């Protein structure tokens, strides 16, 4: 870090950051004209121009790219849109088993669920009487959303992005340089006792219980904060099917 420069540690850089990928109007036709990849974020995004009347208007809107979307592809939004990869429809219009992404958790929040690279959710059921739809999220959990919530058909592009190992420190340096000042991270036991509660000693060890109360003061609040349990997790957990 340069001398004389005041920089927040936890604030990410805003340079080269594209517009947020959020749903706009309910019914529209848009055309994809390029793909953009912001360095700070994972999934690819696609700026698209919208058709209003007989003209393509600008400024453009940004959508999360789905697997299979290409330059020049048309994206349709609304209840009458066809079941095609990249189109945006209310989840109540999607048959059971449909793969979707970028789902609205609440109607009008413009997309909140299954938005990262390679992620998707599955439509597993509808309740027309209550206008509700049940989804299986990427975590495996099941969630009920309003049937009017919008979703994009398909899988978010860029799957497998984090499977390739970094292999060397130089790549990690550039990875976090585009994000925030959070690398390299020094272990507390490697510090001096004036710098960290875990520091000091003739060999690197914490020297006391690593659990810490939730009410601990800043500077003391390190380690396992308000841990319910510690140690190696053993056995399996049975998940109840709703």
Automatic annotation (TrEMBL):
GO terms for biological process: cytoplasmic translation. One of its GO terms (cellular component) is cytosolic large ribosomal subunit. It comes from Pyrrhoderma noxium. It holds the Pfam family Ribosomal_L2_C. Keywords: Ribonucleoprotein, Ribosomal protein. This is 60S ribosomal L2 L8. SUPFAM superfamilies: Translation proteins SH3-like domain. GO terms for molecular function: RNA binding; structural constituent of ribosome. PANTHER family: LARGE RIBOSOMAL SUBUNIT PROTEIN UL2, RIBOSOMAL PROTEIN L2. It comes from the Eukaryota. Residues 83-218 form the Large ribosomal subunit protein uL2 C-terminal domain. Belongs to the universal ribosomal protein uL2 family. InterPro entries: Rib_uL2_dom2, Ribosomal_uL2, Ribosomal_uL2_C, Ribosomal_uL2_CS, Ribosomal_uL2_dom3, Translation_prot_SH3-like_sf. Signal peptide: none annotated.
